[in-house]
Here is the input.
Amino acid sequence: MASPIEMAAMRRAIVLSAFGLGATSPNPPVGCVILDASGRVAGEGYHERKGSAHAEGNALAAAGAAARGGTAIVTLEPCNHAGHTPACRALLLDAQVARVVVAITDPTSRGRGGVAELRAAGLSVETGVLAEEALKVLGSWRRSLLRGRPTLTWAYEVAGGRVRGAVGPVAAADELLWEADAVVEAGGRLWEAVSDRHGSGMMRVPPRWDGGDVAALVAALAAGGVRQLLVSGGADVAEPFLREGLIDEVVVFVADTGRPADRLVSELGLLAGFRIEHVGRSADHVRVLARRDDLREDVAQLA
Ligand SMILES: Nc1nc(O)c(N)c(N[C@@H]2O[C@H](COP(=O)(O)O)[C@@H](O)[C@H]2O)n1
Here is the structure.
């Protein structure tokens, strides 16, 4: 069982991993903390973007010799393949860590996977540690791989009976760009959410969508590396995606117009089939985050 020190380090790794949100796709945002043999933090790191070092590589480089006999705490199963970077499984063995604590296993791991290899090499390995919390960061990536399509978030503003795209007019909505890979908005304009954030050539996004076959569009975006797509627009933009059951979550910015609450609630009828996960307040808006009812993960499958 993971110790309180290991759990605290896992939470630290989860927070670190979020620095990679909106930048690592098609790769996952992963965080790693190395504890030395006495349980002190010796190094930490996260995956910044595809083509650069994995989280484990960065954390081990920071820890140096202090990793020997220590514990690697990592939000995703160490990889078992040499790709753009050496296999994390090999890096951990070379560094002579004694134990590896993992939040979520990798549904795409190669061969028998990093966890099985590390166990076979004699390391103590524990999985499923704070998996639900790690999923707050890795969820879009994991879901996208399992379903073969990006997670779609529809962001809109409700103001005075009008519904319009939130990216641009609502400053708080622009923050969503930092967790997204690409955006589609009114007129079919498509763009990388934050220009060049994924590195040159990593995000292949067609410049326009003609309003036609949404399934084909979503498949093209998945093939181009998009794991999280922001749909910003009124019902006209979202309607084709809603019709195909492709919208996974909505972020609604309800403008504070001083109008009666019952009017606002009727405008939120667009949320049917979604369940509210979070409601918050900013200076000019109430912000509602809602997810499709069927989007809950089976936690038992994460370990
Ligand atoms: N454990 C782990 N830590 C990271 O920091 C990672 N980025 C991954 N990614 C896994 O490896 C695949 C990407 O490999 P390349 O970087 O393209 O060689 C990715 O699909 C994950 O399975 N894992």
